[in-house]
Write a structure and sequence with these properties.
mainly alpha; Zincin-like; 3-stranded mixed β-sheet; two-stranded antiparallel ribbon; globular
Protein backbone atom coordinates (compact mmCIF):
# COMPACT_ATOMS: atom_id res chain seq x y z
CA UNK A 1 0.00 0.00 0.00
CA UNK A 2 1.30 3.44 -0.89
CA UNK A 3 1.67 6.34 1.51
CA UNK A 4 -1.70 7.98 2.28
CA UNK A 5 -0.50 11.56 1.87
CA UNK A 6 -3.87 13.20 1.28
CA UNK A 7 -5.86 11.55 4.07
CA UNK A 8 -6.17 14.71 6.17
CA UNK A 9 -7.03 16.78 3.09
CA UNK A 10 -9.90 14.39 2.34
CA UNK A 11 -11.20 14.61 5.92
CA UNK A 12 -10.97 18.41 5.80
CA UNK A 13 -12.77 18.50 2.44
CA UNK A 14 -15.57 16.33 3.80
CA UNK A 15 -16.41 19.06 6.32
CA UNK A 16 -17.79 21.07 3.36
CA UNK A 17 -20.68 18.59 3.10
CA UNK A 18 -23.54 20.03 5.12
CA UNK A 19 -26.32 17.76 3.90
CA UNK A 20 -26.11 14.54 5.88
CA UNK A 21 -28.93 12.17 6.67
CA UNK A 22 -28.62 11.13 10.31
CA UNK A 23 -29.70 7.63 11.35
CA UNK A 24 -31.40 7.04 14.69
CA UNK A 25 -30.62 3.36 15.11
CA UNK A 26 -28.25 0.66 13.98
CA UNK A 27 -31.15 -0.95 12.12
CA UNK A 28 -31.51 2.22 10.01
CA UNK A 29 -27.77 2.13 9.25
CA UNK A 30 -28.03 -1.54 8.23
CA UNK A 31 -31.06 -0.84 6.04
CA UNK A 32 -29.23 2.00 4.27
CA UNK A 33 -26.18 -0.23 3.68
CA UNK A 34 -28.43 -3.02 2.36
CA UNK A 35 -30.02 -0.57 -0.07
CA UNK A 36 -26.62 0.62 -1.31
CA UNK A 37 -24.84 -2.72 -1.68
CA UNK A 38 -28.00 -4.41 -2.97
CA UNK A 39 -28.50 -1.89 -5.76
CA UNK A 40 -27.91 -2.91 -9.37
CA UNK A 41 -25.48 0.03 -9.72
CA UNK A 42 -23.30 -1.18 -6.83
CA UNK A 43 -23.35 -4.82 -7.94
CA UNK A 44 -22.32 -3.82 -11.47
CA UNK A 45 -19.63 -1.35 -10.44
CA UNK A 46 -18.17 -3.37 -7.54
CA UNK A 47 -18.91 -7.03 -8.30
CA UNK A 48 -16.17 -8.27 -5.94
CA UNK A 49 -17.02 -5.99 -3.00
CA UNK A 50 -18.48 -7.55 0.13
CA UNK A 51 -22.21 -7.39 0.66
CA UNK A 52 -22.28 -8.80 4.18
CA UNK A 53 -20.78 -6.91 7.09
CA UNK A 54 -19.96 -7.32 10.72
CA UNK A 55 -21.00 -4.23 12.69
CA UNK A 56 -19.25 -2.92 15.75
CA UNK A 57 -20.69 0.08 17.53
CA UNK A 58 -17.70 2.17 18.55
CA UNK A 59 -17.61 3.98 21.90
CA UNK A 60 -19.19 7.44 22.01
CA UNK A 61 -15.88 9.15 22.69
CA UNK A 62 -14.31 7.56 19.60
CA UNK A 63 -14.01 10.05 16.74
CA UNK A 64 -13.11 7.53 14.05
CA UNK A 65 -15.06 5.09 11.97
CA UNK A 66 -13.61 2.26 9.95
CA UNK A 67 -14.57 0.04 7.05
CA UNK A 68 -12.23 -2.79 6.21
CA UNK A 69 -12.51 -6.42 5.15
CA UNK A 70 -16.23 -6.64 5.85
CA UNK A 71 -16.14 -4.99 9.26
CA UNK A 72 -17.70 -1.59 9.86
CA UNK A 73 -16.92 0.18 13.11
CA UNK A 74 -19.25 3.14 13.60
CA UNK A 75 -19.62 5.19 16.77
CA UNK A 76 -23.18 6.55 17.19
CA UNK A 77 -21.95 10.06 16.38
CA UNK A 78 -21.01 8.80 12.88
CA UNK A 79 -24.36 7.21 12.02
CA UNK A 80 -25.02 9.30 8.91
CA UNK A 81 -25.18 8.54 5.21
CA UNK A 82 -21.97 10.37 4.34
CA UNK A 83 -19.73 8.52 6.82
CA UNK A 84 -21.32 5.18 5.91
CA UNK A 85 -20.73 5.84 2.20
CA UNK A 86 -17.12 6.86 2.90
CA UNK A 87 -16.52 3.58 4.73
CA UNK A 88 -18.32 1.55 2.06
CA UNK A 89 -16.01 3.14 -0.51
CA UNK A 90 -13.07 1.73 1.45
CA UNK A 91 -14.71 -1.69 1.43
CA UNK A 92 -15.29 -1.46 -2.34
CA UNK A 93 -11.73 -0.30 -2.98
CA UNK A 94 -10.26 -3.13 -0.94
CA UNK A 95 -11.67 -5.75 -3.25
CA UNK A 96 -11.80 -3.63 -6.39
CA UNK A 97 -8.67 -4.01 -8.51
CA UNK A 98 -8.20 -0.24 -8.94
CA UNK A 99 -7.68 0.31 -5.26
CA UNK A 100 -5.14 -2.38 -4.46
CA UNK A 101 -2.03 -0.37 -5.28
CA UNK A 102 -3.26 3.06 -4.36
CA UNK A 103 -3.33 4.89 -1.03
CA UNK A 104 -6.40 4.49 1.17
CA UNK A 105 -7.48 8.09 0.39
CA UNK A 106 -5.74 8.46 -2.96
CA UNK A 107 -6.98 9.68 -6.34
CA UNK A 108 -8.83 6.47 -7.18
CA UNK A 109 -10.59 6.34 -3.79
CA UNK A 110 -11.63 10.00 -4.09
CA UNK A 111 -12.98 9.48 -7.60
CA UNK A 112 -15.09 6.53 -6.46
CA UNK A 113 -16.20 8.38 -3.33
CA UNK A 114 -17.52 11.21 -5.51
CA UNK A 115 -19.42 8.73 -7.69
CA UNK A 116 -20.89 6.90 -4.70
CA UNK A 117 -21.87 10.15 -2.94
CA UNK A 118 -23.59 11.43 -6.06
CA UNK A 119 -25.47 8.18 -6.53
CA UNK A 120 -26.61 7.60 -2.94
CA UNK A 121 -26.43 10.97 -1.13
CA UNK A 122 -27.49 13.23 -4.00
CA UNK A 123 -26.22 16.06 -6.16
CA UNK A 124 -26.01 18.64 -3.37
CA UNK A 125 -23.66 16.48 -1.27
CA UNK A 126 -21.67 15.68 -4.40
CA UNK A 127 -21.31 19.39 -5.27
CA UNK A 128 -20.31 20.25 -1.71
CA UNK A 129 -17.71 17.47 -1.65
CA UNK A 130 -16.31 18.57 -5.00
CA UNK A 131 -16.01 22.12 -3.68
CA UNK A 132 -14.26 20.78 -0.59
CA UNK A 133 -11.86 18.78 -2.77
CA UNK A 134 -11.06 21.91 -4.79
CA UNK A 135 -10.60 24.07 -1.70
CA UNK A 136 -8.33 21.55 0.03
CA UNK A 137 -6.50 20.57 -3.18
CA UNK A 138 -7.54 16.93 -3.04
CA UNK A 139 -6.56 15.01 -6.15
CA UNK A 140 -9.00 12.69 -7.87
CA UNK A 141 -9.13 10.80 -11.16
CA UNK A 142 -11.67 11.69 -13.83
CA UNK A 143 -12.88 8.78 -15.98
CA UNK A 144 -13.68 9.38 -19.60
CA UNK A 145 -14.52 7.25 -22.63
CA UNK A 146 -12.33 9.44 -24.86
CA UNK A 147 -8.56 9.05 -24.95
CA UNK A 148 -6.75 12.21 -23.87
CA UNK A 149 -5.79 14.75 -26.48
CA UNK A 150 -2.63 15.71 -24.62
CA UNK A 151 0.28 13.46 -25.71
CA UNK A 152 2.04 14.06 -22.40
CA UNK A 153 -0.81 12.37 -20.53
CA UNK A 154 -0.53 9.38 -22.89
CA UNK A 155 3.13 9.07 -21.89
CA UNK A 156 2.12 8.67 -18.26
CA UNK A 157 -0.92 6.49 -18.91
CA UNK A 158 0.18 4.13 -21.71
CA UNK A 159 -2.78 1.75 -21.37
CA UNK A 160 -5.52 4.36 -21.66
CA UNK A 161 -8.74 2.98 -23.09
CA UNK A 162 -12.45 2.90 -22.47
CA UNK A 163 -13.16 3.31 -18.76
CA UNK A 164 -9.53 3.97 -17.89
CA UNK A 165 -8.31 7.13 -16.16
CA UNK A 166 -7.62 9.76 -18.79
CA UNK A 167 -7.26 13.03 -16.94
CA UNK A 168 -6.05 14.06 -13.54
CA UNK A 169 -7.69 17.12 -12.01
CA UNK A 170 -6.02 19.18 -9.35
CA UNK A 171 -7.75 22.46 -8.65
Amino acid sequence: MKRDSQRQKVYDAERFVTTRRQFGSLDEVKQFISTVVGSRWWKTKYPFARREFKFIVGPDWWRASMGWMGTLVLPKSKWNDFVVLHELTHVAMYKHRLGRNSPAHGRVFCNHLLQIIRRFAGDQSWEELKEGFKAKRVKWVVFSHKPPGNPHIRDYLPEVGVGQPTEVCVK
